[in-house]
Each structure stands twice: as C-alpha cells, then as structure tokens.
Amino acid sequence: MGIVHSTIIVVPCYNEAARLDAAAFSAFLASDGSVAFLFVDDGSTDATARILHGIAREWPGRIQLLQLQPNQGKAEAVRRGILDAAATQPDLIGYWDADLATPLTEIPEMAARFADATVRLVIGSRVRMLGHEVRRSALRHYVGRAFATVASMQLGLPVYDTQCGAKIFRATPEALGLFSRPFRLRWCFDVELLARFNALSANRAGALIEHPVTRWVDVGASKLTLRQVVRVLPELVRLPAVVRDERR
C-alpha cells in the first residue's frame, strides 16, 4: 500500500550516512501522523541506502524510498522525488535538507500557513531575530545575503531567503507542473523554481509567503566553502537569462 498522508516531504540524500539522523526522523514520525517522507537516494556510495532501508522497515507506510543511479544532483533528485510523491495525491508536498539544519518541527508550522486558501507556496526563511536561533557561519551569512539580493532583483520579488532547504507547496496540478521539466540551474535551482512559480502566480496576492524558521544551524559538511561559492558564480551569470525565459 502506498503512502496516503496529507503532507509528503521529499528528502534528497547523497552520501548522508555520517549526518543522517534516523532517530530524529523516527521521533517526528511518532509525534505527527499527518506527515510521511520520501527519501531519494541520489546515487550514494556510502551507507546511506542501508540507513534509509532501516528507517523504512521501522516505519512501513510512512517512508517511501526512491533510488537514482548514477548521481543526478540535488535539483533532479528533488524534482523526481516530488513527481513520485504526487502519485498518492497528498494535499501538500515539500522538500527538506537531509542534514536537518532546519528541524522537522518546522513542518507542521509551515503546513499550518496553508489554512489561508490563497497560499500556494511556503518557503523557509533564515531571519536572525530575537526569539529565533539562526546560527550561520559569517561566510554563509554574507554570501547568502548577497546572493538573496541578486536573486530578489532578478525575480522582481521581495524575497529574503531563496536558498533555505525547507519548502512546501499545495499539490495542485499547476504547481506539480512546475516540476515537469528538469531545472537548468544545478546549484541555484531554488531560484529557478521561484521564477517558474512567479510566472504562474504573478497575479495572485499572497500565493507565495516566507516563514521565518525558529531554528537553523550549520550542520557539519553543510557549511559553505569557498569552493562551493566558486561553483555558484557561473550560475549567477546565467540566472538573468533563466528568469527571463521563465517569464515568457
């Protein structure tokens, strides 16, 4: 029997064995019966598959696995996972970083924002503010702010944080259509997704909202490096053309 839950969260995984917190996923599943997970093992070469199969055995019916070979990259892993998750017709579908830099407890908080019928997409936002624990390295923070400023200008949206790995959308046919074709950007696909969404919902007030997460912490290998920054630069050059194409 497939997963039949109101919310399905896709979790792309590539060599996550050292930081995949199976206990955290199990604890969350025990506390919230409305959410299921679809893990996408994106051609991992470590023990990721073994850990994921272990979680699936512990939670039959709540965990689905998708194996991709060879490694496709996060953008394609998310896209394929969402299309698979849509087959069971949940109300909401999202994707979440496997390292849980954004804790799973934010899922019901973000899902609750859909009580407003005008909302179509909720994106996590890492805003440093009193009462919230958002801890980022100085490099990640300042590079992130610069990137978000460029992305906001290109999108024509006052978005604060495009790159937080926590996003949930209402699983309508038109929203699922945003994932029907591969993303052109590998590292900045979140911005490309927002460009597609904005082209679809430009005239709908409140269709896209940001949710300030109460906690976000750099986790191990998720920390930004100068090498990763260099990889992103060519995509920043391509970004204006990609956004223009989506507007058409």
- Total strand count, please? 9
Pattern of helices and strands: EHEHEHEHEEHEHHEEH
Averaged pLDDT: 89
Query: What best-fitting shape do the alpha-carbon axes yield?
Result: globular
Q: Give me the side-by-side strand order of the main sheet.
A: 3-2-1-4-7-5-8
Mind describing the biggest β-sheet?
7 strands, mixed
Strand content: 15-25%
Q: What number of domains?
A: 1
Radius of gyration: 17 Å
Q: Examine the secondary-structure arrangement and name the CATH architecture.
A: Alpha-Beta Complex
Any idea of the CATH topology? Spore Coat Polysaccharide Biosynthesis Protein SpsA, Chain A
Low-pLDDT residue intervals, each spanning 5 or more residues = none
Distance between the termini: 41 Å
Q: Can you identify the CATH class? A: Alpha Beta
Helix content: 25-40%
- How many helices? The count is 8
CATH superfamily: Spore Coat Polysaccharide Biosynthesis Protein SpsA, Chain A
Class per helix and strand makeup: alpha/beta
